[in-house]
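Why does residue order matter? Because the sequence determines the fold. Keep that principle in mind as you read this record.
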Amino acid sequence: MIFSSAHLQMFMTCDGFVALIGCIYRSPNASSEDNTKINEIIKKAANMKYTHVVIGGDFNHPELDWLNGRATKNPEHKSTVFLNAVRDSFLFQHVRHPTHYRCDQTPSTIDLLLTNEDNVI
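Structure:
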């Protein structure tokens, strides 16, 4: 099976700090298997004990209301499961304004910047 989403990661060390920097693209048509893999990547990255974790990318979850920290779908929906993966990993989402605009659609925040520190950005 082809992984319809992609991720890239690199590690940096400087003055005793070890940082994980990652970038993820999640296709709007991602399979449930791909969604599960992305959630696992996020959880694994957050639990690897880096001093700094920065994960950015296009996650394509327009159903999430990041300003209020809530999902607009049921608990089993892929967006709600993703939000819970971010919360369970104790990551902070820093993008506060919509990043996706299309005619006749509600603007949404699908491009995210996740870190393990609230005040790092």
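Residues 6-115 form a domain with the Deoxyribonuclease I; Chain A fold (CATH 3.60.10.10).
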